[in-house]
Write a structure and sequence with these properties.
Methane Monooxygenase Hydroxylase, Chain G, domain 1, about 180 residues, mainly alpha
């Protein structure tokens, strides 16, 4: 996908509508039971979406696909903020999607200098982004930009972006290797 659709994926909207109708039926259940079911559903959805991104069968991903994925996660966050089940404190339900949100923000803004400079700091903007996760996704994007445009090497902007990706990949690998040596 080179460009996002401009709206969330149909399958995801169907799922959210299904969850919304299920949680409306839960109104007769004790509050904690309905809240636990809703939180579990959101956590499962978040985990499943992250696994889709990191799946080893997915060899390449374009920026357009990342943007589309971002639209999907925004819909999940909107669902969570709509309080599908009453009784959650503040944005508790939205926190189910925080790992995805921070990862996508990093890629959408292309904020690698902040990520690398703040890595390991308790107040880091991307505290929830694991370097290994970022590396896997970045390598899938790197492969896409190389294979999709054989003339990219002739355009300065594309060459510069490739150099930046290579530099970030090296820095992420050193973070990942540093983490594995400490465990």
């Amino acid at each position: 996908m080179s460009e996002p659709d401009g709206r969330a994926s149909g399958y995801l909207m169907d799922l959210i509508n299904f969850l919304r109708s299920i949680f409306q039926v839960f109104t007769h259940l004790p509050g904690k039971v309905a809240q636990t079911a809703c939180m579990s559903a959101c956590q499962h959805l978040s985990t499943s979406l992250m696994q889709m991104l990191l799946d080893s069968e997915l060899k390449q991903i374009s920026m357009g696909a990342v943007q589309q994925f971002n639209l999907d996660v925004i819909q999940c966050e909107l669902f969570a903020s709509s309080e599908p089940v009453p009784g959650f404190q503040g944005d508790t339900l939205q926190l189910a999607f925080i790992d995805l949100r921070q990862l996508l923000d990093l890629f959408m803004v292309w904020d690698w200098s902040t990520y690398l400079a703040d890595y390991g700091q308790p107040a880091s903007k991307y505290l929830r982004v694991n370097p290994n996760t970022a590396l896997i996704l970045l390598e899938k994007m790197k492969d896409t930009s190389k294979k999709n445009n054989i003339f990219a090497q002739f355009r300065k902007n594309d060459r510069d972006k490739q150099k930046l990706i290579e530099t970030v990949v090296k820095q992420l690998r050193s973070l990942v290797n540093g983490m594995s040596q400490h465990t």
